[in-house]
Amino acid sequence: MYASTAPRIAIIGAGLGGLTCARILQQHGIAATVHDLDASDTARNQGGTLDMHPDSGRHALREAGLLDKFLALARPEGRQMRLVGRDGRVLFDAVPPEADTDGNPEIDRGQLRDLLLNSLTPDTVRWSHKLTHAEPVTDGVHRLHFADGTTTEADLVVGADGAWSKVRRLLSDAMPLYTGVTFVETGLDNADTRHRALASLTGDGTMMALDNNHGFVAQRNSHQHIRVYIGIRTDEHWHHNAGVDLSDDRAVREALLKEFTGWNSDLLGFITDTDSGYINRPLYSLPVPHTWQHKPGITLLGDAAHLMSPFSGMGANLAMLDGADLARALITHSTTDEAVRAYEALMLPRSTEAAEGAAEGIDSAFAPDSATQVLDHMTQNH
């Protein structure tokens, strides 16, 4: 690619997209440094299960030379999709045939991140490197300032730093907006032995129970863990308005049970039988479309570029595809600026389409007639 000095590439954020980009670059002899605010790779729980799509997430893994290792970890049975009414009746249940190898096998986000991290050369990721701000120096070069007082300069800064990206501020004034829906996350451990009824209701993949702006999403993870999201269309500060202390599990439980008055008692077990307490997660998205005027030496990928609701099913897949496409552009174009322009021309239109779909998805899932809307969608697409 580069006839003279190789560019200094700084990737901000050790999420799936940034790590994918770094891995593919390294495979082609191009160095990149990843800076992450966490103290280590185990500092935070990485979240629930993901399905990897053939033309995005799995394509990126193939480009990274990791597809076989991914398939060894993935759970094809996790593709089961079930819709349940508020009365506990199963309205839709799709179990892909065992012979179907073209679907979207599931994997825990933490397992996938570890797969990418372990594929990088030692010391690629600089932990405890929280970016405070970045500033342009000259000719596309940016100086990065970190919370520990250190600085570095880069010829290309890749903002892979998520919803509240510091890098994005150099390209766009856009800020995440509240979608109107909040998830309260909880979980069940050793579900098949300790929570048999809820495990049976969940099935092997994802179960959704939706009605009148409320819902449950239960996802199978590995090691008999079920991750649960209790969703409500509500004010962003619902707990303040209700006088609920989020650190008081009993108060949160009582508030949620009140919200779900009249729902099937088995479904209410997703609220009452928690093994992990409750985590409040308001859902945000960037305005659609989110675009910016190209600037030399800087670009975005993943949530930093196109934060959207999880009802697209595309967030992680798009982030990894972004990382793969940016890396491929840097490998094949003669200059960094040409590469970034080509990447942005590819990424921005597709992310707009996905974000529009995500907005429609969350509005369907949390609507007065949500069960009917989602059932119609599932029936048409299976």
Topology readout:
Elements: E1 9-12, H1 16-27, E2 33-35, E3 49-51, H2 57-63, H3 67-73, E4 81-84, E5 90-94, E6 106-108, H4 109-118, E7 125-126, E8 131-138, E9 141-146, E10 151-154, E11 156-159, E12 177-188, H5 191-194, H6 196-202, E13 206-211, E14 214-220, E15 226-233, H7 238-241, H8 249-259, H9 265-272, E16 279-285, E17 298-300, H10 303-306, H11 315-332, H12 336-365, H13 370-381
Parallel strand pairs: 1-2, 1-11, 2-7, 4-13, 11-17
Antiparallel strand pairs: 3-6, 4-5, 8-9, 9-10, 12-15, 12-16, 13-14, 14-15
Sum this structure up briefly.
The chain has helices at residues 16-27, 57-63, 67-73, 109-118, 191-194, 196-202, 238-241, 249-259, 265-272, 303-306, 315-332, 336-365, 370-381, and strands at residues 9-12, 33-35, 49-51, 81-84, 90-94, 106-108, 125-126, 131-138, 141-146, 151-154, 156-159, 177-188, 206-211, 214-220, 226-233, 279-285, 298-300. By secondary structure, it is of the alpha/beta class. α2 (57-63) packs parallel to α11 (315-332).
